Amino acid sequence: MSDHERRARLGTRHGLAPGCEAGSVDAATRSIVALHATEAPTVYLSCWARVPEVAVADVDRAIYADRSVVRQLAMRRTLWGFPRDLLPAIWPSASARVAAVEAARLAKDIVAGGVAPDGTAWVDAAGAGVLAELARHPGGLPAADIRQAVPMIDERFETKWGTVNFSSRVLTVLGARAEIVRGDNVGGWHVSRPRWTLTEHWLAEAGSLGSTEGYRRLVGAWLRSFGPGTEDDLAWWLGAAKGIVRDALAALGAEPASLDDGSTGWLLPDDLDEVAAPDPWVALLPVLDPTVMGWKQRDFHLGPHRDAIFDRNGNAGTTAWVDGRVVGCWVQDDTGRVRVSLLEPVPARARRALDAEAERLTAWLDGLQVPIIYKSPAMKAALAS
User: Fold this and answer.
1) Alpha helices, H only, 113-210
2) At what angle do helices 3-13 and 211-226 cross, to 10 degrees?
3) Are the C-beta atoms of residues 185 and 143 closer than 8 Å to each other?
4) Fewer CB within 10 Å: C terminus or N terminus of the chain?
5) Is position 373 within any domain?
6) Is 286 a member of any domain?
7) How does residue 161 score in pLDDT terms, banded at 50, 70 and 90?
């Protein structure tokens, strides 16, 4: 499959091309499997890019009222906003893997810090204390209140990297285990200040597939949105071993596709037809948007701009797109105005369309300066200029 067709699939499947936009927050979430939620604004801005006329209240409704999108720590120890019905696949697979690793690390540090001689027992006791406290508060509690109510998790010790506080790590383990979940947010939409609550209080039902079936469903969802992709792409996205990927591909009956770079990609057996190129399109996507981050090998849409768009830790900054290719980034000036900064020349019609998107986003943000942690080299250069 050519890079050109891959870019056509990207535009149509991810709700970015004309006539392919998502009709709701839920549809936008499914179009990219899950919303990246490490930075709180990304959830909202990813929906803004895909759902015409979407409002902050629409995203809030999906997360906090309908609870059709649920924030869950999963692949690569990353926070995501998942469609609710995908959670039974996430919990026993990607989330369980993260939980096991994080619990083991925490137990080791508990012993190293002299907090307790048996780190595993300490983690279990701390977790039980948090769960008991949250059981008494169906509406959930902020992390600060949990620390006050369960003093043992407010332990700290010094390392060569600085002071380590165990409370957030206990909550991370319990969240990855799907025992607790981020509930209502006590801050604005652009910040993350959740009330932690028992999962059973937030979702009112439980259910979980086995690990093998969970991974199969995840791989199938990824192929539907991002395929064709290689084993390397899938193993990176899942944060899982290639054996898990190969087993899932076999169970799905995935079909191989030769890619322009000489590698072998995979497609679902009912998704082999060629996708016609959509009408010309542009998009402004936020930091860490799943479309930017969805593959390990990204040259087909990044071209020569990898070093400009990604920081040293592999975090993508904002991106400006033309017809399935990244051509630059966007930043805000001191007044909150959105400005596009190009990394390569684009046709005049594309430049006009990008500027129109920048104006639309400026109006939508209504003066808010989006807080951004992960600024790419391209963003830093644009801000400096």
Assistant:
1) 119-135, 143-149, 167-176, 199-203
2) 110
3) no
4) C
5) yes
6) yes
7) low
- 318 within a domain of the structure (yes/no): yes
pTM value? Answer: 0.95
Amino acid at 351: R
What strand order describes the sheet that includes 194-198? Answer: 141-142, 194-198, 180-185
Confidence at residue 247, expressed as pLDDT on a 0 to 100 scale: 97
Exposure string of 277-307, with b = 16+ CB inside 10 Å and e = fewer, is bbeebbbbbbbbbbbbbbbeebebbbeebee
Give the dihedral of Cα atoms 360, 13, 59, 332; nearest 10 deg.
-30
Residue 295 φ/ψ region, left for φ over 0, alpha for ψ in the -120 to 50 degree band, beta for the rest = beta
Helix, strand or coil for residue 276?
A: coil
Please, what is the end-to-end C-alpha distance for the chain in angstroms?
Answer: 39
Q: Tell whether 369 is covered by a domain.
A: yes
Tally of CA atoms within 13 A in the half-sphere of 7 that contains its CB:
21
200: helix, coil or strand? helix
Q: What is the pLDDT of residue 112?
A: 87
How many separate domains does the chain show? 1
Distance, CA of 18 to CA of 217 (rounded, Å)? 29
What pLDDT does 150 receive? 96
DSSP 210-261: -HHHHHHHHHHHHHHHH-SB-HHHHHHHHT--HHHHHHHHHHHT-EEEE-TT
Sheet of 69-74, strands arranged across: 35-36, 78-83, 69-74
- The reported pLDDT for the residue numbered 162 is 73
